[in-house]
Write a structure and sequence with these properties.
Layout lengths: L14 E8 L4 H11 L3 E10 L2 E9 L4 H15 L2 E6 L12 E7 L4 H13 L3 E9 L4 E8 L3 H15 L2 E6 L9 E4 L10 H9 L2 H12 L5 H10 L8 H8 L6 H10 L3 E9 H11 L3 E5 L1 E4 L2 E6 L6 H14 L7 E5 L5 H6 L2 E5 L3 H6 L2 E3 L7 H4 L4 H11 L24
Parallel strand pairs: 9-10, 9-14, 10-11, 14-15, 15-16
Antiparallel strand pairs: 1-3, 1-4, 2-3, 5-7, 5-8, 6-7, 12-13
InterPro entries: ACT-like_dom_sf, HAD-like_SerB, HAD-like_sf, HAD_sf, PSP, PSP_ACT
Pathway: Amino-acid biosynthesis; L-serine biosynthesis; L-serine from 3-phospho-D-glycerate: step 3/3
EC number: 3.1.3.3
């Protein structure tokens, strides 16, 4: 049975109206007022504004004479200085195909040739681009394609090859409701949430920074077993006084955009976790400062106020990170499909593979090649764009949290009374 107002049970034709020109207030209201005068049913209505240019389309089913509607639209266009097109609708108003997916492409700059290659590949896969929107333009340009008729695993494999060939950052993810609602974000710490390798900061106090850095680099490239390399590096810390923890905490530098990423996803209802092959003595206070829900890392053995050069308990290695992600997801009552993991090293690979979306952040080649998505710019909050969150939405959330309404007007606080870090602090 067809619902009332569809073309199957109505003798009236459909009319497709397109208005193009300089955007101004009141255009859509006037269009709908004209449609109401002709007794039209609205079958579809879409509007986009790009750099002040308006594209407004409406699929109407008038119950009065279509030529009268056409004349009223021409008058409306003249009043607003717009170009108008009125043409017969063609057939039924089709529903969107299944196989919803989102493709996000990020670049600084973002070349037209890159986007041409991506969109051509989408077409070859048999998917249709239903909508395109810009998520950000500074400091990176991010474009999101909303698709139907897509096979996400197949499209992800195809676009991963293009991303590798063209050094593009992109993500392919299920669309629709899969992009909304609560999720779990799990991050690596060293060289991801923070700019530093904590063990190297500790080793600097022992005078063995270079030695430890060389071992760390080999382990992150996957050339050494992580557990064995960690024991070797921790051995270099033997004899350090526990006061070193406070000094290292003060020296740690957050990755630009870290606070913005954490606070934005928390405002959206996400749970946030960190899991690290580093040390809880540093990671724990950092997680507390950021309001992070879960933290898991190694512990350093201490006796008589000094480090023994050994790890206390089981080492958090590559497999341990994936287990932690699963444990965090269980604690939040979320399936793995609703998890996002971010990491940069070989010991993050199992965690990235287990997550619904694994993102390589300024990662080693072996990690970038195996992750679902990659980011190669030094701003951690660009991960938000991979999740379909625009810069405008981030800025709006900041204004509201600072005491303004969605338009940026102050509500309950004096102007300037609340301060937040910059978008990349």
């Amino acid at each position: 049975m067809n619902s009332p107002g569809t073309q199957h049970d109505s003798p009236y034709p459909t009319v497709l109206i397109t208005l193009v020109g300089t955007d101004r207030p009141g255009v859509s209201a006037d269009l709908l007022a004209v449609a109401a005068q002709s007794g039209s049913h609205v079958l579809d209505l879409e509007q986009a504004v790009v750099r002040g240019r308006l594209l407004l389309t409406a699929l109407l089913q008038p119950t009065g004479p279509a030529d009268e509607l056409s004349g009223a639209i021409d008058q409306l266009a003249d009043r607003h200085g717009l170009n108008a097109s009125v043409e017969p609708g063609h057939g039924d108003n089709p529903s969107r195909r299944t196989g919803r997916a989102s493709v996000v492409v990020l670049g600084s700059p973002l070349g037209a040739d890159d986007l041409a290659e991506v969109t051509a590949a989408i077409g070859r896969q048999g998917a249709n681009i239903d909508r395109i929107r810009r998520l950000s333009r500074d400091p990176v340009t991010t474009i999101e394609f909303d698709l139907s008729g897509a096979d996400v695993p197949s499209l992800r494999r195809t676009l991963a090859l293009i991303a590798a060939e063209r050094s593009l950052d992109l993500a392919v993810a299920p669309g629709g409701l899969a992009r909304r609602g609560k999720r779990l974000l799990v991050m690596d710490v060293d060289s991801t949430l923070i700019q530093d390798e904590v063990i190297e900061l500790l080793a600097a106090h022992a005078g063995r920074e270079r030695e430890v850095a060389e071992v760390t680099e080999r382990a992150m490239r996957g050339e050494l077993d992580f557990a064995a390399s960690l024991r070797e590096r921790v051995g270099c810390l033997a004899g350090l006084d526990v006061s070193v923890f406070g000094e290292v905490r003060r020296a740690v530098r957050l990755t630009p955009g870290a606070r913005t990423l954490v606070r934005t996803v928390q405002r959206l209802g996400y749970a946030v976790a960190v899991v690290s092959g580093g040390f809880l003595e540093i990671v724990g206070p950092l997680a507390t400062d950021l309001g992070i829900d879960h933290a898991h890392a190694n512990r350093l053995e201490v006796r008589d106020g000094r480090l023994t050069g050994r790890v206390d308990g089981e080492i958090v290695d590559r497999a341990g990170k994936a287990l932690a992600l699963r444990r965090f997801a269980d604690a939040e009552n979320l399936p793995l499909s609703r998890t996002v993991a971010i990491g940069d090293g070989a010991n993050d690979l199992d965690m990235l593979a287990a997550a619904g979306l694994g993102i390589a952040f300024n990662a080693k080649p072996v990690v970038r090649d195996q992750a679902d998505a990659s980011v190669s710019v030094p701003y951690l909050d660009t991960v938000l764009f991979m999740l379909g969150i625009s810069r405008d939405e981030v800025d709006e959330a900041d204004r509201v949290a600072a005491g303004g309404d969605a338009t940026g007007h102050e509500t309950s606080r004096a102007a300037g009374a609340a301060s937040l870090d910059s978008p990349h602090a």
